[in-house]
Amino acid sequence: MQRSVFVWAALCASLSSAAAADEVRRVVTGLDDRNHAVVLFDSLIPVKQDSPVISSTNFWITDGTPPSLYSKDTVRPIGVSPPDNGTKFRLVEFAPLSPEIEAKLPPEMIMKGVAHAPEKGIPVKHPMMHRTRSLDYAVILSGEIDMMLDDTSVHLKQGDVIVQQATNHGWVNHGTQPCRILFVLMDSKEP
Q: Which DSSP helix (H) or strand (E) runs through 103?
């Protein structure tokens, strides 16, 4: 457990130093035929623009719990939610959102990409709001952002950590600099 915390901290540090980069280096390890630890993948993963205010990339996706250890690349197109019984490890960059752009965002913009939303919860109130049937861990790598909830908003900045438990939330950057967030989403049981 302690080792995974150190790995997580090292990854966060390396990603935050790469803020605003169009690519992020991803290194994946595994075992070879002799059971020796080796690098399976070492490549730059592009951070692609998904909408006028969001750019993202997926680093790793699993399709079961506990996850299998893969020697093949698991990255593939996937919506907002992790796969059923799976996980999704990703980076999202939120551009500053001006009132003019915010007014033009389609209703339920993010919620439309959610598969298997939890039954509990009220309808979303903002285009950036959504809820996934997942337990999400998030680390603010750079910048600042507001996490909107149903009746309140929480201002977050670099180094803050969030545990999101299948509730309505939206990420809105009212600042002047992009905000990068590292996410691990794990499919969960209905709340």
A: helix 99-104
| 59/87 Cα distance (integer angstroms) | 11
pLDDT in tens, 51-83: 889 999 999 999 998 888 877 889 888 989 999
Give the confidence band of 130 by pLDDT, cuts at 50, 70, 90. very high
Sheet of 129-130: strands edge to edge? 129-130, 169-172, 144-148, 153-157
Q: What φ, ψ does residue 176 adopt, rounded to 5°?
A: -110, -10
pTM passes above 0.90: no
Distance CA 103, CA 107 (A): 10
Superfamily of segment(s) 46-187? Jelly Rolls (2.60.120.10)
Kind and range of the H or E run holding 122: none
Q: Which amino acid is at 45?
A: I
Running DSSP on this structure, what letter comes out for residue 46? Answer: E
Distance, CA of 120 to CA of 102 (rounded, Å): 27
- Kindly report the length of the chain: 191
Sign (positive/negative) of CA torsion 94, 160, 25, 165? negative
| Cα–Cα distance measured from residue 38 to residue 32, given in angstroms and rounded to the nearest whole number | 6
How many CB atoms sit inside 10 A of residue 115's CB? 14
3-state helix, strand, coil in the chain (%, to 5): 15, 40, 45
Nearest to 115 by CA among 73, 141, 144, 85: 85
